[in-house]
Amino acid sequence: MPTPVITIAQMREWERATWATGVSEESVMRQAGAAVAKVVLRRSRPGAAVLVLAGKGHNGDDARFAAEGLLGRSVRIVNVTDPAAAVAEVKCFSGALIVDGLLGIGLSRPLADDWLRLVAALNDSRVPILAVDVPSGLDADTGEPLGDAVRATVTVTFGVMKQGLLRATAAPFTGRLEVAADIGLVPCPFESELNWTLPEDFAGFPPPRPVDGHKGTFGHLAIFAGSLGYHGAAVLAARGALRAMPGLVSVFTTERAYPAVAAQLAQPMVHPWMAGVKLPASCSAVLFGPGLAGPDVPERLRSDLAGLWSESPLPVVADASALAWLPTGRTPPDAVRVVTPHPGEAAGMLGRTTVEVLADRGRAVREISRSRGGGWVVLKGRHTLVGRAEGDLFLNSSGNPQLGQGGSGDVLAGYLAGALAQPLLRADLGLVVRQAVWAHGHAADVLSDRQGVWMMMDLVDALGNTARVGFT
User: Range with the lowest mean pLDDT among 131-135, 168-172, 328-332, 463-467?
Assistant: First the structure.
């Protein structure tokens, strides 16, 4: 299950509820330390030098327990009681990773000068830093640095996500956010409308295919995409869709883009769009928008697709260029609708600025959904936000900045639409949408860990093949 995003006061109450059951603080800290050690091992090679900075509080205890699990690494533990003395340790270290276990989530006042100097030394070290629970110096409720804060490469926070770690102001300090959910606490007693997605949420999804299934069983996706100068978007969307393995994919593109699109797609059926063209009789979902930005996109095509959005009973995904002319208002009752804007496109849909959208992404998702028939909104970006006009909102936990390449959104839209085209997967629509977003980001994470530099066709090849990594 996705986990709630909570405050520090709620975290403390959760801990007290755990201690009241007889669970010891030490047992929880040992499990928290083991979770940190697992990430350190994943991010370093055997024999690598690791510097563990442990403060005098429980954050330091977590770090010390983590050090016990770093088998095969060259570990130096520095118990920091005098931050001034620790500066030299940091300046002399040139190993693979520093574990920041100095100050925890209880910090609520500005750092003293000697702590500020230690934080500055850490940030100047150019050594990757893993923050235990929260980067030292960062207010985990507000996301603001208390004078300054450690700029971590990755932050492993415990139990659930804390609200301050998600603030825009916190991003330069937290780096990548990971949640160590299972550390021995009792079940979280809190709920929130904002939830953090865990990889385990998708265990067993997609389900096994029926042994008597055939291509008709698994749906037929129609894609309207590509135009002069933007034919690649149609290709990437189609190849992304194929990774979800619908039974059939048909691509409709402009007449001038048709030769380039058809030449690059063997499995989908590719057609030049003509006025009056009808959806295939077996069509079970529609995607439109990727690459429909060229000068050769007929107004009739835009009009037909807008009408399809407003009237078709089929699931419809609208992406990219189409978001600028997508009609507002109601859609058929119970019809599945999904839009996939980035913040700039979301701003255009709402008549606001990108800054305003980013200041309150939850509100943006609610308003876009409300104005477009109450459908699902995938607001892309760091921790892509998924939700509708009502109900829970879900933050995606996968992905990295290397997704910031042209074509990434086309691949995602295709993969999502390819899943929605399959009637057997639609029992939980929210799960389908969230899994597509997570799998797309997870494929990017696997690629970045494995080879560093990669392109969109690498992402297509990885998509789906890596979706179950991390469930063991």
Answer: 463-467
Residue at token pair 């330390």:
33
Q: Which residue do the tokens 């300054």 mark?
A: 148
Q: Which two tokens stand for residue 356?
A: 């305003």
Question: What is the pLDDT at residue 471?
Answer: 33
* CA–CA dist 352, 347 (Å, integer): 5
Q: Is the pLDDT of residue 467 over 50?
A: no
Question: Quick one: how far is CA 312 from the chain centroid?
Answer: 30
Rounded Cα gap, residues 39 and 31, in angstroms: 13
Q: Do residues 114 and 84 lie in contact, with contact meaning Cβ atoms separated by under 8 Å?
A: yes
For domain 220-462, say whether CATH 1.10.260.40 is its number: no
- Strands laid side by side in the 376-379 sheet: 161-162, 3-6, 194-196, 393-395, 385-387, 376-379, 337-339, 316-318, 285-288, 220-224, 248-253, 269-272
Nearest residue to 15 (alpha-carbon basis) of 23, 132, 96: 23
- CB neighbour list of residue 400: distance below 8 Å, 6 or more residues apart: 176, 441, 444, 445, 448
Distances (CA, A) of 424 to 213, 237, 298, 427, 469: 11, 21, 35, 7, 23
Terminal-to-terminal C-alpha distance of the chain: 16
Q: Whole-prediction pTM value? A: 0.94
Q: Could you report the per-residue pLDDT of 266-303, keeping only the tens digit for each?
A: 999 999 999 999 999 999 999 999 999 999 999 999 99
Residue-wise pLDDT tens digits, 41-94: 999 999 999 999 999 999 999 999 999 999 999 999 999 999 999 999 999 999
The sign of the torsion formed by the CA atoms of 401, 406, 409, 410 equals negative
Q: Is the pLDDT of residue 97 over 70?
A: yes
Query: What are the two backbone dihedrals, phi and then psi, of residue 356, each rounded to the nearest 5 degrees?
Result: -65, -40
pLDDT above 70 (res 463): yes
State the residue for tokens 């921790």: 383
CATH T-level fold of 3-191: Rossmann fold (3.40.50)
Query: What pLDDT was estimated at residue 452?
Result: 83
Sign of the torsion angle spanned by Cα atoms 446, 449, 450, 451: positive
**CA atoms of 118 and 390, how far apart (whole Å):** 46
Rounded to whole angstroms, how far apart are CA atoms 329 and 370?
A: 8
- Burial grade of 452 (CB within 10 A; 0-12, 13-18, 19 or more): exposed
Tokens at 226, concatenated: 């590509």
User: Which sequence spans correspond to the domains of the chain?
Assistant: 3-191, 220-462
